[in-house]
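Encode chain A's predicted structure.
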Amino acid sequence: MSYVAYAWLATAIYGFETVITKLSSKYAIKNPWLFNILWNGMFALFMIPFYFRPEVGIPHVWGNLIITSLLSAICCILYIISIYRIDVSVLSPMYNIRTGLSVLFGFFMLGETLTPYKIFLIAVIVIMGLLVSFDEKFSFKSFFTKNIIVAFVFMILLALYGIFLKKTITEIGYWNATVWTSLLPALFLLFTYPKFKKDIKTLRRKQFFPVVAVTITSLIAFLAVNKAYEVNVGITTVIMSIPSSMIIAFAMSIIWPTLMEKHPLRVYAVRFASAAIMFACAVQL
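Encoded structure for chain A:
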């Protein structure tokens, strides 16, 4: 498979993962910190078969690997908090912001080209990223809530993560980077224990089922996107910005309006229009 095919596969699967996570937040595990540690811990366990590949060993370079793993752990926290607090149809198109920021970081950190036209496109993406949070009240306060700011910070760090992941893969190889960037974030997240220590004592077996589903989907997508990042960060980031989970969420709002989210069609019209503009700009970047 080409890296483009891997990127498309990851996009589709991440769409389902986001929806499952949102459903879990509503019906299974109310504490985002508990869900996060269960998800990352289970992910690290599911990766065990890959630890024994001949390409995997003790890395000879640790700098970028540590930075990548820390960014991954922080991004996991911000992602779970965002998905717990924000509609899927809001968060999903905001991934286009990551594309614009990746171009900016590429200019400052990798010496890539940045033209005035690209700066204009990035500005449009950021503005549309705010407009995509349009709701029934159409209040400007809805564009600058604490949850939207958290989502913006998430996109900033996610863009940085993509750059450092590329550096890590280049330094220690695809499989080494894939294994270690799944294990280290889980270890770093153990420091969040005070946030979930009470709820973990009341955890029930049935609450694990959505976590297992999220872990399986995220594992497949993680392997696919790392394979794509190994070849090309820019195009992979653009493909990953397609709001697949937004499309799924909208379809579910029609079929099962009480299950996850439900808004008037005018709200979805504004959100989809904003997402389309963001993606069009991202493609031109």
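The chain has a mean pLDDT of 88.
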